Structure prediction request, 458 residues.
Amino acid sequence: MSQHDSINAGRRQFLHTAGALSVLGAGTPLALNLAGIGAAAAQSAPTDYRALVCLFLFGGNDQTNTVIPADSAEFAAYSSARAGIARPLQELTTLGAVASQGGRPFAVPNELAPLASLYQQSKAAIVANVGPLIVPTTKTAYRNAAVPLPPKLFSHNDQQSVWQSSQPEGSTVGWGGRFGDLLASANAMPTFTAVSVSGAAVFLSGQQILQYQVGSNGPVPIRALSGSPFGSSTAAATLRQLLTASYPNLFENELAGVTKRSIDASATLSGALATAPALTTTFEANSLAQQLRMVAQMISVRQSLGARRQVFFVSLGGFDTHDNQLTTQPGLHTTLGAAIDAFYRATVELGVANNVTTFTASDFGRTLTSNGDGSDHGWGAHHFVVGGAVRGGDIYGQFPVVALNTNDDVGSGRLLPTIAVAQYAATLARWFGVADGNMADALPYIGNFSNRDLGFMA
Prediction:
């Protein structure tokens, strides 16, 4: 490593640590000042509000049974290739003919009818055949290993990480977190810039911004600091006092400080949520719907939190359908369609539909061929983008022909992506407010692709 690289690496680590120590109150100016000397300087603070919501489908959603060509010839080819797991025509909701795809008609399963309705209202779009790529790649280049390929293709953990961060499992910085780094100066309390309602996600990890995790009912309290821990009525008060004490050991001091800041953040958010307007939109009782309900509630108190740019992460698991696909995937799609629809209606109710964009992501797509009762790990997949700022009612990218041995098939109907995750992300980033000059800092491979705006955002 050169001296210059070593200095930059040290600076990045210093910024990451300093960001962790400066999350609230008096620490905020320090965090904002430090942001100016990072690898990419923080951008000027926007004055409007915008939020991105990443909805990750863990396990690898089967894209071929999600968006289905509905013309007779191609539907027959689909049914033949997917013997045992193809959806019959009567179980599909039509999207109609799509001019950008040469007039080909498409459909989605009835379970996704709420998304079909949003599509017809031009509030939802489909982005076809998206997947991790380092450079534009052809089937010949893939077979001959003539270009660099994403690491550890077809591996769940690694591809989840590659989707979220451009690197395999072990990566520490994701593109959602980097968007937050660049625009956190817009927020009075940077702590609430990157928020997960689904546990730790590398997607939200920045170099300066740390993800803030909440439960679907709000901040998760420290049990020992509430009630009567250890059967003592005074234990909680004593523990709180310990957090304000000064210790000779640096690590003891820092642990106390971090814990206190966590408590302060929890109190700030709890106080804000207590003033949140009651939503009339109904969310179902399942985990995904409740995660999105919490996102809607946090958005509703954005002014109390001083937030102008926020990135959220929610998820739904269970999509690894090697078996029982016709039993498992429809139920997951029912949950998915209803939850996204409820969340969109909540943003309309809050008057922020044009300021909030939800997009799906997943480990990978799946094989066209059936293993008898399911499908196996693939690569490219189709994804939904929903919101008032979406140029909906259209399919972006070139939707692949549903057949084996095409130029998009790298084996068993695994789709070679024709749109890189970096391009998908860059389109969202531009809408979010990331400057073109800073795009490569969040998306390291975007410079290898000429098209950085796929056009699905207004």
Notes: The mean pLDDT is 89. The two ends are 42 Å apart (CA to CA). The first strand starts at residue 50 and ends at 57. Residues 325-349 form the longest helix (25 residues).
